[in-house]
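During the no-cost extension, the postdoctoral fellow (Dr. R.K.) reprocessed legacy sequence entries with the updated structure-token encoder. One reprocessed record is reproduced below for audit purposes.
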Amino acid sequence: MGYSDKVRGIYQDQITALRDAGLLKQERFIHSAQAADIEVEFPTGSSLKKVINMCANNYLGLSSHPDVVKAAHEGLDSRGYGMSSVRFICGTQDIHHELERRVTEFLGTEDTILFPSCMDANAGVFEAILTQDDVMISDRLVHASIVDGIRLCSAVHDTFKHSNMEHLEEKLQLHADKRFKVIITDGVFSMDGDTAKLDQMVALGEKYDAMVFVDESHASGFIGKTGRGTHEKCGVMGKIDIITTTFGKALGGASGGCVSGRRELVEMCRQKARPYLFSNTIAPVVVSGVLKVLEILSASTARRDKLEANTAYWRKGLTEAGFLLKEGDTPIVPVMLFNAKLSQDVSRDLYQEGVYAIGFFFPVVPQGQARIRTQISAGHEVHHLDKALAAFTKVGKKYNILGKTKQEIIDMYGM
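Re-encoded structure tokens follow.
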């Protein structure tokens, strides 16, 4: 049949159904650098609108920091635009090795290996270190990239209820006969903003002879007293066997990721991880920028401290206005709406009020758990947060959701 009119029509009908239901995901085009204030074209063809960005992963406000941009320029001038090769052929420069050394020092691990992205790191690590004789036991809310990596691995896969240590222990007992056992979790869960109980997971790992894996993408640079991550916050630095993280969020905001941890596990990734072996290495311009970011973070915790203060201010303001929030103390602050269309309508109206915040719904979050996920940055000033709070309050009043319980919102709008 090929791509016939019948096939085209089926896809067109599916797209139309999403549009009619108000659930069609549409891109917004940013015509400025990533920052607290951005210029956005939405919908396509519209005039530009200046808005406050409340949904970027730019936690430390470093995406457009002048020192980072300068370092990137210097890296471009001295090491070129790209490597045109994978690492083990001729894609490794001295600065790649230097970044691996610096990340290892920053995270407090034994060794580090760079990947084109953290998604690639998660896609490659499990297959590289595990076999069908092993078991992966993951929190049920781990990031989609971890799920994809698990799917590519021949090891047995099981799950435990979100942050439920009793259930995790039951699963560790159930799989006591496996050669290797790996507990798998996010450090900070990207949709809910809560933090993994890494101290308890490490204790269970020691009790049941299991390794611990944590994705620190939404933690590296700002969680913990000096921003090392969830393992610093939970007091288990040096006890996590495998850490993956990204340079595409707080650590510069461009791209790239890594696997960091036990020396032998990192070496196995270097020998066997397919995304490492068959993808071009991180561009020199990005490496140079990330090196500068690590230098900034090692010199001062000022940005991390400002982010913490901004987060407390934002969460307090939303709570006092009457919104239902997911509990937590991270810069990810989800405003719960429960209904997919309502999340899109609220997002649209916030945009008209000058606030850029995207609605999330199934399958990005579980069915009936639609929300506006707000994310705070050290780049935000109090005047940004006050204007955004005013916009949220105005829109919340329009939809009569302020001060309402979950059930009352569901009764009004459904799930």
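Residues 302-321 form the longest helix (20 residues). DSSP finds 16 helices and 14 strands in the chain. The remaining legacy entries will be reprocessed before the final report is submitted.
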